[in-house]
Amino acid sequence: MKKFLQLHFLTAYGPSNLNRDDLGRPKTVMMGGKQRLRVSSQCLKRAWRTSEIFESALKGHIGTRTRAMAAEFHQQLVKGGVKEKLAKDTAEAVAKAFGKLDKEFHIAQIAHVAPEEQAALDALAAKVITTGEAPSEADFQLLNAGTKAADIALFGRMFADSPASNGEAACQVAHAISVSAVQLEPDFFTAVDDLKERAQETGSGHMGETEFGAAVYYNYVCIDRELLKKNLQGDEALTKATLKALTEAALTVSPSGKQNSFASRAKAHFALVERGDGQPRSLSLAFLNPVKPGQKSAHDTLVEQQQRFIQGYGEQLEDYRLCLESGQGNLAGLLAFVQE
């Protein structure tokens, strides 16, 4: 198995607002002196790991990101008939096991809890309910460095007060950027009051404005397959299933932002997957100069940049291409390639 797997893919979105900033506008970035649309890596990773594809393929191996696991634990104890003081004290101790207590039963920083750790929480709750006694110090050693949570193995996690339980991410995801320069467009809209009679005062019941853009996005994902397998405790089958699920989700799942307003569902129309042992690199340089209508296609520009790196650095890579325009490759073949 080659150490690194790199996914480069292009996805075209019509009018959309996939990922909003604090003002509700599409996120942007300046590149090559031109404004581009942008989708953050955090937005992309959440869309992929919460997708039906990911959850179905990796059932039982997906963690939960939350600050409120101790609050749910407290409710378990109360429903099980545990006295309020014992339930409260135990829940607070559980919260402290995952981080600093922010407010009642909530920790200050969101924690990524593995299925094995959730099972330990459930077992602890059952023990307290059965015995009616306070747990021992050892019972609160709930964090488990040897989990098989695929999303934690891919994207990592950090516990400031428990470094031994931290996990180094095996997957790096770049912010997606538009390959062309863009200008955001405003959309002024109104809503009509259905119960207002025609004879009454005319006008809308509501007015508003939102912004949007349309573009082809370049996406880049780099996976250290050796680290991923190590994070998954050497489980070869789970490693392959994780690579397959992540790749399929990345190519076929859209961020959920403003989908009801724009229906901007899309799948990648071009994908270039590389595997090798050499130092990885993004191909974003291909789009430093924006792609313009009538010029070379984005996927041709991307492949040319790949070939320049291969020639200039003598890179030893194997690759697989999926191109809807030319009919080259298919999803089944691409998914088989990432698992080899």
Task: Tell me about this structure.
The chain contains eleven helices and 13 strands. The chain folds into two domains: 4-58 and 169-179 and 214-339, no CATH class; 65-148. The radius of gyration is 24 Å and the shape is flat. Helix 8 (236-252) packs antiparallel against helix 11. The chain is α+β, with helices and mostly antiparallel strands and 340 residues long. It has helices spanning 41-49, 52-57, 69-79, 84-98, 115-131, 150-155, 225-231, 236-252, 259-262, 298-313, 331-339; strands at 4-16, 28-31, 34-39, 64-66, 101-103, 106-107, 111-113, 171-173, 176-178, 185-191, 206-224, 268-276, 318-323. Strands 1, 2, 3, 8, 9, 10, 11, 12 and 13 form a nine-stranded antiparallel beta sheet that branches. The chain has a two-stranded antiparallel sheet with strand order 4-7. It has a two-stranded antiparallel ribbon with strand order 5-6.
Low-confidence runs: none
Sheet with the most strands, sense and barrel status: 9 strands, antiparallel
Number of helices: 11
- SS class: alpha+beta
Domain count: the total is 2
DSSP strand count: 13
Query: In whole angstroms, how far apart are the ends?
Result: 7 Å
C-alpha Rg, in Å?
24 Å
What share of the residues does DSSP label as strand, in percent? 15-25%
Approximately how much helix is present in the residues? 25-40%
Taken from the alpha-carbon principal axes, the silhouette is flat
Q: Average the pLDDT over all residues and give the rounded result.
A: 93
